[in-house]
Amino acid sequence: MADYDAQPDRTPPSQPELPPAQVEADEVDLHAALTGVAGIVADARQVSEILRDVAEFAVRAIPGADGAGVTLIRSGDDLPRILTWAVTAAFVAEIDAVQYQDLGEGPCLTCMDSRRPAVSGSLGSDNRWPHFGGRVARMGVHSVLALPLTVGERVIGAINSYAHSRDAFAEHAVQLGSQFAGPAAVSVYHAQLLASVWERTDQLQRAVNSRAVIDQAIGIIRSRTGVSAAEAFDRLTQISQSENVKLSVVAERLVQEAVRCAQSRER
Predict the structure, then answer these.
(1) Do 120 and 135 lie in a common domain?
(2) Same domain, 33 and 104
(3) Disulfide-capable partner of 146 in 11, 79, 107, 178 (CB 3.0 to 4.6 Å)?
(4) Which helix (H) or strand (E) holds 219?
(5) So what's the pLDDT on residue 1?
(6) DSSP annotation string for 94-113
(7) For the whole model, what pTM was predicted?
């Protein structure tokens, strides 16, 4: 039996036993989705693009889902801060905006807090989210399955699957969704780390390039004035402060002017 938080005070209608062919088809879809998330790499892609891929795989893995969203948070604060999210359909984006930006309540926030899947089969009558549920139900969406993305003891985000029909996510869907969420969390986490490394590498490369230009500008000032390296650097700093322009921009401008002067003399 799946371990999840069901909607209080609601007994969903009994579900007929799934035929073996349907069970097998769902397992095939789950395997395909897991294979997809296992192959995710960051490369030069934005994290939001990676999350959108995971959301697409989630729709395939979770029976009954009409759309899904994947949310990434920064934990460690008193309240988790939403960093970014990606969705498979416009109605999911609208729902998640209501949840994160308008109300600050909803199944995604609940499942990240409890670290357990949260399921609702009739959002309009779910007293866990009285404002969110009624608003989403009026949009024609009545079921949700929210799955926390955890790596070790850390919650890094959540997967939210929505359906227009009531009671769309039975225990079978929760089981498959939970099987998907574990590997998906690892793939998202690794892709996030790799993207962070690429960003840091790019920052360091820009810093190295800026330093080289500054050194060139110092050399130009010294050759023109005969001052020391420290005095040349002070002059660059003074120009930067007086013009409220970055030091690297001032240095680049000086180097470009020196190159143009040298080229004009050669003509």
Answers:
(1) yes
(2) yes
(3) 107
(4) helix 171-225
(5) 47
(6) HHHHIIIIIIS-SHHHHHHH
(7) 0.72
